[in-house]
Write a structure and sequence with these properties.
The complex is a heterodimer. Chain A contains 14 helices and 11 strands. By secondary structure, chain A is of the alpha/beta class. The radius of gyration of chain B is 23 Å and the shape is globular. Chain B is built from 13 helices and 2 strands; from the N terminus they run H-H-E-E-H-H-H-H-H-H-H-H-H-H-H. Chain B is 75% helix and 1% strand. In chain B, helix 10 runs antiparallel to helix 13. Classes of the chains: A alpha/beta, B mainly alpha.
Chain lengths: 352, 286
């Protein structure tokens, strides 16, 4: 049917022709300008960090935010392109590697890598140093001193019926499952379905007390008095407490895990050289200290510690004493089967 | 393929109708049929290491979907959708009636008033509701101020907040078909009922209401069906204890990284929706 063919090609031409100049111009513009596209957690960088970088190098940083790691991963694996640099939690790194989403930082390209504390070099979750540690912190309990008279001491306080409807839990598989494991005495290495049934049961049992599962908006709820007790990440609470002195943070007596968020270069990043330059810049002692002072998480940058706010440096909940530091464990690096068990258990808890 | 395409673009009708249909057909093909086909295909695949998709086909995802642990979610979803539909109908019918018969010259202004909140992103609307419903929010402050309450009530994250959000968002879906069908009720027929001695009440129940039934059914279908897939309302206003089918599906994609299972759940929901719409069309034709 020659008629159909001509009609179709006519349509195609009719649609595409007016767009062509615009498309070409867009491509050229994107190539000309020096930019780095950076995808990071919200409230996770200093106010001047990126403007200072742009001023010094002339490279524009397009900064994009996420409030949920799982969502970020889903977005990237679904094919969101165009990011050069992302921040990834330690536990997600094997997943990003297995899905070929990130690319190693070439050895020897970062002159400031030596600023990192030895503990953060060649870590178990990333032995080949594909990524670069950015900030680290702990997971603990936030509470409102005015509303909760007896300071919480244990993870079990989050299961205490007297706090019904006043509790919030992080909407995060790693933290919630690992706390349940800690309370049940189950090792993180398990792959026994019976263990995961118990974990699910424990977390479902808590649900009548839980007002929200959230990794970001619970901080507003805490300030607004909607909740009074929350599982939290250390720095997020310290940031919020800056303006709300009634809020405080405890590390429960059962202990907690430490986690490390890392900078990773996306596979096929279009602006490699400037991305590496930005990573190296973020490793500079003054810059790293500036970020740490502003977001109130700990910096893995040993050389930066001289410039870190003394109050933060002396707070063992931000920078644990060497003795405490020894007790702080990293999460077990999950293989894909364990990872699926964790995720599926968590998804089941959420809809129970 | 060429034949199918030319059929979709208007069959053997003149060129003009092909061209008129082309944007809609292309939209449908690229944004509905191809993605939905991909989703259905994916629902038979297997979940591999770290959520990679393994193309080994089977019915395992569908078998999992019928696990009894998901029954409460299904039940809850139907309950919320049904409750929303009923509330929307109870609120929407008098509203549509007023708009049609009583609003007079205000009619267009009121219709715009009904639509304007609907044009704003529902994300913005829900966040505004959070401000209203919070413990230190407008509603609690007002109730305490006027002495109706001594302690603030947690309105947020309750079934009430979910229902409120759903009704708020879906009300126009109910009202507009109702309005359209009430508007089509011939005034002369209603007047004839009065002439034959019917009171206002009898005239309404025996004449106006039966004639507006197609609008009632269309309004209910247009409210109930999208409600079944809603997840944002619960995500923002609903708290953790009332997750619906939409949240279960979104969790499979976002959290569990089990896309094949999420696709199977979506396909089932899709099948239910298409089945429901088909029944509705069959009813309409009958």
């Amino acid at each position: 049917m020659p008629e159909t063919v001509s009609r179709r090609s006519f349509l195609k031409a009719a649609v595409l022709a007016p767009l062509m100049p615009a498309l070409l111009a867009a491509c050229r513009r994107a190539d000309d300008k020096r930019v780095v596209n950076f995808f990071n957690w919200s409230n996770y960088i200093g106010k001047d960090t990126l403007p200072d970088f742009s001023k010094r190098t002339g490279v524009e940083v397009r900064y994009d935010l996420f409030a949920d790691e799982d969502e970020m991963f889903t977005k990237l694996r679904a094919g969101a392109r165009g990011y050069d640099l992302i921040v990834v939690g330690d536990y997600l790194i094997p997943r990003f590697k297995s899905m070929n989403l990130i690319e190693p930082v070439p050895a020897g390209t970062l002159k400031n890598l030596g600023n990192l504390a030895p503990r953060f070099r060649r870590p178990v979750y990333d032995p080949d140093e594909t990524t670069v540690p950015y900030l680290w912190g702990t997971t603990g309990i936030a509470y409102n001193k005015k509303k909760i008279r007896k300071a919480p001491t244990s993870w079990w306080d989050l299961w205490d019926p007297q706090y019904k409807d006043r509790v919030s839990m992080l909407d995060n598989v790693r933290d919630c499952i690992s706390v349940a494991m800690q309370l049940l005495g189950i090792p993180q290495t398990t792959r026994d379905p019976e263990d995961f049934r118990k974990i699910r049961e424990l977390l479902v049992k808590q649900k009548p007390l839980v007002k929200q599962y959230s990794s970001a908006s619970y901080l507003n709820s805490l300030v607004a008095g909607e909740i009074d007790l929350a599982m939290t990440w250390s720095g997020d609470l310290f940031q919020t407490a800056r303006e709300n002195p009634d809020l405080d943070y405890v590390i429960p007596k059962e202990g907690t895990y430490m986690w490390v968020d890392c900078l990773a270069m996306m596979r096929g990043a279009r602006h490699r050289e400037d991305t590496l330059r930005l990573i190296d810049y973020l490793l500079e002692p003054a810059v790293a200290a500036g970020i740490a002072n502003s977001v109130r998480y700990a910096t893995p940058n040993l050389a930066a510690q001289k410039e870190v706010d003394k109050v933060l440096l002396k707070d063992p909940r931000v920078y644990p004493t060497p003795a405490l530091m020894k007790q702080l464990q990293l999460h077990h690096v999950l293989d894909s089967e364990q990872s699926e068990l964790w995720s599926q258990t968590w998804a089941d808890v959420k809809v129970a | 393929m060429g034949k199918a395409l030319s059929w979709l673009l208007g069959g053997r009708r003149p060129l003009a109708s092909h061209l008129l249909l082309a944007p809609a057909s292309l939209w449908l093909i690229f944004l509905l049929i191809i993605p939905a086909g991909g989703l259905i295909l994916l629902s038979f695949a297997k979940n591999g290491p770290y959520g990679a998709i393994v193309w080994e086909f089977g019915l395992h995802n569908y078998a999992r979907a019928f696990d009894p642990k998901y029954l409460p979610v299904l039940f809850r979803t139907f309950a919320f959708a049904a409750a929303t539909t009923i509330v929307c109908l109870v609120l929407g019918y008098p509203l549509a009636y007023y708009l049609t018969f009583r609003a007079g010259r205000w009619r267009n202004a009121l219709l715009v008033g009904l639509m304007v909140p609907f044009w704003s992103s529902c994300l913005v609307a829900y966040y505004s509701w959070m401000i209203v419903l919070g413990k230190e929010g407008l509603l609690n402050t007002a109730l305490i101020r006027f002495g109706f309450l001594s302690e603030p009530i947690g309105f947020l994250y309750t079934p009430f907040a979910i229902l409120l959000g759903l009704v708020y968002f879906y009300l126009p879906f109910t009202v507009l078909p109702l309005y359209a069908s009430l508007d089509k009720v011939p005034r002369s027929v209603v007047e004839a009922a009065y002439d034959l001695g019917a009171g206002r009440w009898t005239a309404f129940w025996k004449v106006t209401f039966p004639l507006s039934l197609p609008g009632v059914v269309a309004g209910c279908v247009l409210t109930f069906i999208p409600c079944l897939g809603d997840f944002l309302t619960v995500e923002i206003l609903g708290g953790p204890r009332y997750y619906l089918l939409g949240n279960l599906i979104s969790n499979q994609f976002m959290m569990a990284q089990d896309w094949p299972f999420g696709s199977a759940l979506t396909s089932l929901l899709l099948a239910g929706l298409v089945g429901g719409l088909w029944l509705y069309q069959a009813w309409e034709k009958a």
